[in-house]
Amino acid sequence: MQENKRKESKATQIVLITISVLFITLMLVIPLISVINNSLSEGVSFYFKSLQTEYVLSALKITLLATVIAAVVNSFFGIMAAWLITKFSFKGKQLLATLIDIPFSISPVIAGLAFIMTFGRLGWGSNYIDKINEFFGTNIQIVFAIPGVILATVFVTFPFVSREIIPVLNAQGKEEEEAAALMGASGFMIFRKITFPHIKWAFLYGIILCTSRALGEFGAVNALSKTRGETFTLPLEIDALYLSGSNDSITSAFAVSSILVFIAIAVIIVRNIVEFKAKKKLEHIES
Amino acid sequence: MYVELKNIEKSYGNYKASDHINIGIGKGKLVALLGPSGSGKTTILRMIAGLETPNAGDIIIDGKRVNDIAPAERGIGFVFQNYALFRYMTVYENLAFGLKIKKLPKKQIKERVIELIELTGLKGLEKRYPNQLSGGQRQRVAFARALAPNPSLLLLDEPFAAIDAKVRAELRSWLREMIHKVGITSIFVTHDQDEAVEVADEIIITNKGQIEQIAAPIEIYKNPKTPFVAEFIGQSSKIDDYHKLRGFEKGDYKGAIIRPEFVESFKSDNVKFKDVINYSEDGVIEDIYFRGNCLEVKLNVGGIILTTKRSLERRPIQIGERMHVIVYRLYAYDNERAYLLENKDLKGKELVTF
Amino acid sequence: MKGHKIKKYIRKDRVIPGFDLTMGISLLMLSFIILLPLVSVLVFSFKLTPTEFFRLVTKENILNAFRTSILCSVIASFINCFFGMILAWVLVRYDFFGKRLLDGLIELPFALPTAVAGITLSKLYSDTGMLGKPLTILGLKVSYTKLGLTIALIFIGIPFVVRAIQPVLENLDSQYEEAAYILGASKAKTFFKVILPELRPALLTGFGLAFARGIGEYGSVIYISGNSAKEQTQVVSYIIMQKLNYVDYASATAIALVMLIISFFILLFINILQICQSRRTNHV
Questions:
Q1: Membrane-spanning regions, if any (chain A) (predicted)?
Q2: Does C240 sit within 8 Å of A109, measured CB to CB?
Q3: Chain A residue with minimal CA distance to C92?
Q4: Is C247 in CB contact (< 8 Å) with chain B?
Q5: Is residue B169 included in any domain, yes or no?
């Protein structure tokens, strides 16, 4: 490792490091500071007041609900898919892995559109929803309602957990699981005793990533949510505040944003801790 | 026979991993599956364990056909090539795992684990994790873990491959001793003939998905049945026009295989060989390699290059020197089989060998 | 130790339990959450006749949006490749104070909600903003122009490039470099002839990922871009959203289909690259 760092001349080093630091400062740090700066431009009491409006609290509730459900659903899926992809071989495995990654590569707006085309008035799914509502006497709405917001959130965060676990399991191989299976251990027992201890950090990190993305999802939710104070999530509330144009509301938008910024920073710190732990463990095993 | 494979066929796509395999292994025997990479030996082991299913044929353990019996129900202990120790469990927990699954009472598990730890000399390491053990210790844990549920058959996949050369020799004799002490029927896979010869009671030689020969190590060494075995075992060189060598005639053979120990070379004034000097022929030393405990000498005998070993205790030789050369015996082969041919000139003569 | 062929098939016999269960659940969830909604888009867009489809997607403002999205994404991705290369190099090769912080900050655009990034950049570069004000004095307008759009895309694209290059650079065998060095190649020559070719697949992957994200980007660009049809600062995602708001589902799905096809090809391109890369490294 050390030898890898054959030293370029000191001047080159300084120039390159300076470019990097300037770029990061200009592109990332200044925006970050300006969020905090803007959010406090009308004082601390205004800051806290803007976090406590009815709209913001309702948006917070919806956001948390969607996020928790997305995290649970995608954790469950992530573990199932990772087990399937890393422990077995079957035809079409590569295709399956690619399909799981779809939400990474398409615009979130299209995700929103997809749900409208499925469950909206024109979608084939709306008939079934109507029938269910008729049968049970309920009034479930998907599009432009909370279920749609949840579905969109699940969609955009779908691959997060599986994508963190799969590389770890691939690196571990499957001999340990085979050995346990030869001894007659059940699938659940193998998972609990052998696989899970191995993936718990990656799993945790996957959940964190999933959570942070779910909290911040905008495009997909924007397409499916139209009622402020009822189906709006925090990013939508920020959007509404910002676009209403008055100085006060713009400052409020930044105040709400600052909460999400703090979460983002926390995620990055956790990521670093997890990575550090994983590296240490690797060195430990290799030594 | 304790373990029997009858007409086993197994292919992966177009690749035939097992082609009409028939094996019988006696109770209590320690058997090696020996062959080059890709010869199908690991497949055989994995099929016996139930990690793979044959396309056709029967696998019989203790008189019972086990093809459709789940791997865990076959009463098998399996030692993986890289041991597959559970890295998030201590040595103790590793050994206890299989017993816990069988829902044995706690006290009984403890007794059995302690017994195994003592048997395998792992005392004091119970609380360690696999990554805190040396290669040799890991192998012991893997061995003990496989034995824990009292299997009637032990399968080992390249048990020495993950260990460095120095410790390997020591572990070989340890494993052999251990298996005989426990008295369990065992099959291990290896591509290293020294390993097979040293450890096994019986060797099964595989090649291209087929069985070439099943016999005791000494038998395999002395009487290779097929051209493949003759060439694979020992340090062999192939010679086409062997009939040009003195004392051998051309038969219906395709060629011959000669091992260094079949060739003797000596200087003309060596009195020890004066009885046979008349049956020798001339050879010129082409090359000499120092092999640590002996010299390896390449001799050119009428255009045929023969290899022989020479003790370091004997008189020094040099490249270009003329020597007398005698070939005692060789393995001639046709397409199917290998045949031992003795030097006919030397029949009835008493031979001096070093 | 055996040939690839055997390894590939060895897994056919499944000793580890749970294949049916995990396969069933994975396929079920994948189908309901991802595939069915996307298929609905396809089905709906196939209801359009080809002429209708073409008429819808070749309207001037839509073509302009595609042009803007693709052009700005390409420019942003190129800029990101350049700075991403320097950043990755600095982070892998040098030790300096604050390196870990810099490394962590790279991740920010991944973790920050796009809408937050959008309003922040928009405010920052507006005429009265911290950076916008001095730039306006210099006669450079950023907010509500393609330049602003490109800056937003640089912001969200940078981690893709850095994270694609970093691991490859870390694993690059220093022997190549040393060999070139011993043979007398200059440092610049060593970089362009020895290191850069090794990094090319990773660089292209990073470019592809940043580009894919860029053309579909919504939250971070809509505030800064101004979304003016006249100024050609509308992006494709914005157009789709606009059509949705006007309940013009035919146009929305038609445009979405084109986007899906573009995404598919980028994904295919990246997959092929990665296969090539792993093949190359395996054969060394």
A1: 12-36, 56-83, 95-120, 140-161, 202-224, 250-274
A2: yes
A3: A5
A4: no
A5: yes
